[in-house]
Amino acid sequence: MEPAVRIDHLTKVFKVPSLKGQRVTAVSDLSLQVAPGEIYGLIGPNGSGKSTTMKVLLGLIAPTKGTTAVFGQDSRKVRSRVDVGFLPENPYFYKFLTAEETLHFYGRLGGLRKRAIRERSKELLALVGLEHARDRRLSGYSKGMLQRIGLAQALIQRPRLVVLDEPTAGVDPAGSRKIRDLILKFREDGISVILSSHLLEQVQEVCDRVGIIFQGKLCREGPMEALMAIEDQTEILLERASPELIARVKALVDEDAQASLLRAGHPRTTLERLFLEETSGESPDTRGGSQDA
Amino acid sequence: MHNLAVYRHFSPARVGVLARNTLTQLVRMRAFYFLLIFSVIVLVSALLIQNFTFDPARQLKIMKDMSFFAMSMFGTIFAIVATANLIPKDVEDRTLYTILAKPVPRFEYLLGKYLGAMLVIVLSMAVMMLMLCVVLYLRQQALLTEQQALLDAGAPHAEEIAVVIDELKADGPSTSLITAAAAICLQAMVLGAVTLFVSTFASSGLFTVVVAFMLFFVGYIEPVVVDYWRGSMESLGSFANACIHVVELIFPNFQSFNLVDDVVSGKTLPLSLFFKILGMGLSYVVVYLLAAYFIFADKEL
User: Fold this and answer.
1) What mean pLDDT comes out for the span B115-132?
2) Of A10, A164, A258, B24, which cross-links A30 as Cys (Cβ 3.0–4.6 Å)?
């Protein structure tokens, strides 16, 4: 099966505007693939080359060396963008347009007919929870709402690949969680995602595979489970365990010559979950909590 | 799940969407407020000019002169200021990323933006022209009635009054007025294309505005300078002439779009002159848009 994204030996060198003709290598010999339906996290510090990689993939800048392809189509070709939806970091859409007009604008650019846009807009505004603000100009939108309309515009032509650059930057925890839930829904719908984020906890929650990029090079890559697993440790999570049972488990561990008990106690919730419980009254989602035991 | 989109290498619909969006942007930025200022200029010139001159035909001439000056100012300023910020603002706000991340070729983006801005100019000019024609017609009719009444009352100098009536009839709304307004429109379109070209490599909107105004100035004084060069550098031979030709080709001669003086003085403009200006104007638009595309096509965003 054709990968959703194929990046082969990508190198991008920028000329620095100076008299000396200096050059900076933003990305160096980077190769990766994203399978259809996979959520791939691209993480790394600022200036490591994440956004440059995404821009090359979207045809916004040309590679110095190497190739990039989206579902087998060279990403320098405009046609490859039919299958791509993109949400840039801190997007500012046309503030003079309403949400509905924004989706109409991007839908038409994506090659959709008016009727299809009307139906799709309705669906997407419901998906991102902006039905109530459909006729409001974007100048009156909060940052979280802008990110959500950004997601909607990215999805308007039903792309098979969505590229998200810091989708939760500057968004409050509730908005951030909504965006996370939307990304998880992409997986259900079979949409491939490339996600760049500094919120590593969120990346950990949603991504199937992760690539760590540093100084333009892909240092480490693999499935989330494999990368996160600490090979020489085993976690046992008990519910309603009596102090006697805990004491017996400890005694059993003590009997073993090699094994040692590192920690025992109550698992902690996350600050995000605590915040959401207090501010929205929603029942906490069990997924994603810290499991210190 | 299947993709809904249909891709074509060139889509007039996409260009139309971009143009309409730019038009909406400029309208919602209240660009049409200038029309209010223009209305005031036309009405004030119609109502107050009679206090400054008793010559009825001169009143109409002054009214036309003031209105065309206002139209020309609007066309020049708007073409530069509105076009200069189209691309830099989209880059700064990153709106350009979301647009070009859709299947939109860069030349369609440029063309759509340009056409949107020009649509505002054309619509504004049309409205201004309509306003001028209506007010001019009403004032002309009022003056004609006045003169006819004098004639009917058996006023002395009947021959002079008859001449004034003939002059007034010639100074009303005419196709020459439309030709002059169309020439102003074309000038604004050429200037818009030049400005768009500068904005593709400029580092800021301000730089674009300054350079575009300088190019406009150069184009405006070009015929005078070229005549001077030709007169004083004959001895330099063919190389100097070739250089002058290049200058003439690169910088549009904005003087050639100025038909206002002829129209105000009551001359009838031949249609061939309009087509000549149209051909020249559209050629410059095409050349400068192509030049803008060649730079923008490889621009790293």
Assistant:
1) 90
2) A10
